[in-house]
What does this fold into?
Amino acid sequence: MTATAPHPTVWIAEDALVDSIAAALQFVSHVHPADYVRHLARAYEREESPAAKDAIAQILVNSRMALIGRRPMCQDTGVAAVFLKVGMNVRFATRRSLDDLVNEGVRRAYLDDGNPLRATMIADPLFERRNTGDNAPAMIHVDLVPGDAVEVIVAAKGGGSENKARFVQLNPSASVEDWVVETMSTLGAGWCPPGLIGIGVGGSADKAMLLAKESLFEPIDMLDLLRRGPASKLEDMRISLYERINALGLGAQGLGGLTTVLDVKIRTFPTHAASKPVALMPQCAANRHVSFTLDGSGPATFEAPDAADWPEIVLARTADAARRVDLDRLTRDEVRAWTVGERLLLSGKLLTGRDAAHKRMADLLARGEPLPVPLDGRVIYYVGPVTAVGGEAVGPAGPTTATRMDGFVNALLANTGLLAMIGKAERGPEAIEAIARHGSASLIAVGGAAILVAQAIRSSRVLAFEDLGMEAIHEFEVVDMPVTVAVDSAGASIHLIGPDLWRRA
It folds into this structure.
């Protein structure tokens, strides 16, 4: 056996990795991949549903504003996920673990004074659910591969899309396509479409989920694939799923329309003969990820695309196109006059509250204790804003998924005089029934348009539960905040009516 000369070792300084991770997370917070923008712009051009077309327009305009302003495109700046392929000739010049270096990069990114990102990670998932304050730790995946460099993918995955991940062990003869389409029909809009769907098939349960997530980082090429036609069974399956999912009529933000997914990605791996593990991973409209390579020459740098590559879209925000609502004088009779699908422009004082605040309020009501903030005659917005910088009243402040608050709706409406709620995505049957019974309404703002929403917010102050950080109850002063009536006081839901109309069309 002939011995081969050893390859020279490539040394990676710890700051090169830490700085690169931090810079990558800052970059993806405000820069959409160009392939996503191209496909979304095409979806905007072909969309026939007015509500869906307006939602896509808001996402595209918001995306361009984020790029120019270097501020997060979405208030949910996500869980940091880092995938590293470490060449076997690479050594890290450090005494710290790889996890420690990556998490240091996460901390630097999320605590950056110039563009602070929202800390979302909680240290204890079971009991205290206390925020770590710096968004660490990251989800880290490492492969040791041949080579002289470190290839890295950095992503930020929002909670709305992550919560819609699904897994199943199918019988070997069962149809993956049918399961995916049926599952997509049940996901609703909490994952903020239009986005991508990643499918992982094979391996084991954990491997399939990883395959699905990794597939989301592949280039978006569905427009090119449709133009040239499939060259393999897998590409044929991608096209079939793309067409069948879009034929469900869910549309942008679940409002009903032609485009729910911009692309479908599929990865496979060998599996046990008795198994067919299948994972489905949605990717929201934020679609934040970037890749880079470290070769020992220093940290990675990232070049933002030209804003001229974004389509020029002028949003229609005239008084004639929407009903103006004075939140400070809002009455139940006025709420009862709103109709499903109607656009509103809200002005006045607006309360905020998310999961943790709702849990505390429900517990107080159950004990017969007063709430720290009276809700009578008020509207509450499901949001956890990003920290403000410079002259901002508040940082990016788009809606979170309304469905997560469904379990609290009846208690609040029955005991407080709350008039309406604002979030994104659909409400469940019990929440809709409670809304109709109490003559309330549920409104939606566009998920993925956090900067646009924040422009309508003129001031912000914390009223209660300050220890909850971004989940505290704030009071916003808003001017012409655009929303749509998702569930009216009669119980009609746009997330049922819209997709059904476009599915039949």
In short: The chain has a mean pLDDT of 95. The two ends are 70 Å apart (CA to CA). The chain is about 30% helix and 25% strand. The domain at 319-504 is CATH 3.20.130.10 (fumarase).
